[in-house]
Amino acid sequence: MPTSTLNLAEPTCDLPMAAKAIGASRSHAYALAKKGEFPCKVIRVGRRYRVVTADLRRLLDIDNA
Question: Which range marks the domain in which residue 16 is found?
């Protein structure tokens, strides 16, 4: 996924978007998040999962430009 289509300026992004950025399927990402094994920090907000974009940027090795 081109990082230009991923809004990394926001503090968090949704789990499916983060999964797409790292090349994982949506269902696999949810399974990892549920087990606490997603490679970035995941926050549970109600019934939703949000991924901390600072962690995602580090994982993808993207500068904080």
Answer: 3-60
